[in-house]
Write a structure and sequence with these properties.
Rossmann fold; 3 domains; Aconitase, domain 4; 14 strands; seven-stranded parallel sheet; globular; alpha/beta; 18% strand; 17 helices
């Protein structure tokens, strides 16, 4: 039987901020993405109740695969009506195939099994060709409309942070971005790049005791702590100038500049670094594939495609660097190190009188035995 207090939110990224291991998370997240899956795993939850379809089969989203591989129980596709009946702090029990809310029967529990998921996961690859065709068409269609984005047909704000001639690290909440941050810590310490965090990525940097110089985004997922600790805040608004995130910044009594342009906040961060004269731009957790954008609910990647075309010579993509190289200490090297350390110790011991006498006794003993 599963039981516990409910933590509920329409946005998984907001839910995990207040989630504890003994809570039962209730989400409304269609096609759970990789970042959401890892954020739930970090909270050590044992069960997830999703009122939407965790895996629709439209494309091979990775979230469910990650959760099931860690033996997380997923109760799936309960419907938005059920979601609306549950409130934060409610007590929820799952007894076999039935769900009880505050002691009263709520609905049937629909478990998403590994076998069921694997069937639809393999099937989703067959849909990729058609999906890719539509994705490319959308990307090219919007690229024509958004070409002004990289041609400088919008105003880039003046900033206090000096970027010209420096390395700039742009961190986004993408696949394995937390591990990648740890993997390049020595680079951050030695080179001291200007650090631009895209929205909630700032929180991961703060956890590692790395202060972002600039935070860019719509401010919907970054914590207040990060906002107060960074040097500058840039709110990314819609092309018409509407910036819902600006109200939050003003409520906190903080100052912010606004960039009104199409594209993602990640694109804006990369373009800002480029336009301000960065010598090198290092991107961590970047979204650069069709799957990344489908998981975010976007139909194309026109702005990202255009931005990367422009800044390409200066861009180094460090996404997945933690997977490329994981530092392991070989037993062979440990053995060599131990032997290397013992040699000078033995050399010193051999010239000290007590040990010379000890070795002499051993030699006498061996002669008696070998006679």
């Amino acid at each position: 039987m599963i039981k516990g207090k409910v933590k509920i939110d329409r946005k998984t990224k907001n839910l995990v901020k207040r989630l504890k291991s003994d809570d039962i998370p209730v989400i409304l997240h269609e096609d759970i993405d990789e970042v959401a899956a890892y954020s739930l795993l970090e909270k050590k939850v044992k069960v997830i109740i999703n009122c939407a379809k965790s895996f629709t089969g439209r494309f091979p989203a990775q979230g469910v695969k990650i959760l099931l591989s860690h033996n997380i129980t997923i109760i799936d596709d309960l419907g938005e009506d059920i979601f609306n009946q549950i409130k934060e702090g409610d007590f929820l029990e799952v007894k076999e195939n039935e769900i009880y809310l505050n002691g009263k029967y709520l609905c049937e529990a629909k478990y998403l099994t590994k076998e069921e998921f694997e069937y639809f996961y393999q099937k989703s690859f067959k849909e990729m060709e058609k999906l890719l065709e539509n994705f490319i068409e959308n990307t090219l269609e919007y690229a024509k409309k958004e070409k002004g984005f990289i041609l400088g047909q919008f105003e880039m704000p003046e900033i206090q942070t000096k970027i010209a001639g420096k390395h700039v690290l742009v961190v986004t909440r993408g696949s394995s971005f937390k591990k990648d941050i740890k993997a390049i810590k020595s680079y951050i310490t030695e080179v001291k790049p200007v650090i631009i965090a895209v929205d909630g990525a700032a929180d991961a940097l703060i956890e590692e005791k790395i202060k972002p110089h600039i935070i860019i985004g719509d401010m919907d997922s970054v914590s207040e702590e990060s906002l107060f600790k960074c040097d500058e805040i840039i709110v990314h608004s819609y092309p018409n100038g509407y910036a819902p995130g600006l109200e939050r910044i003003k409520t906190l009594g903080l100052d912010a500049k606004v960039i009104a342009c199409p594209g993602t906040s990640e694109d804006v961060a990369l373009l800002l670094a480029y336009e301000k004269g960065a010598e090198l731009i290092v991107s961590v957790g970047s979204h650069s594939s069709m799957l990344d954008f489908l998981e975010k609910g976007r139909k194309g990647m026109s702005s990202t495609f255009l931005v990367r075309l422009k800044i390409g010579p200066k861009l180094v993509d460090a996404r997945g660097v933690s997977k490329l190289y994981t530092e392991r200490v070989s037993l062979k090297y440990i053995g060599i190190l131990i032997i290397s350390a013992l040699i000078p110790i033995l050399a010193v011991l051999m010239i000290t009188p007590p040990f010379q006498y000890f070795f002499y006794l051993i030699q006498l003993k061996l002669r008696v035995i070998l006679r």
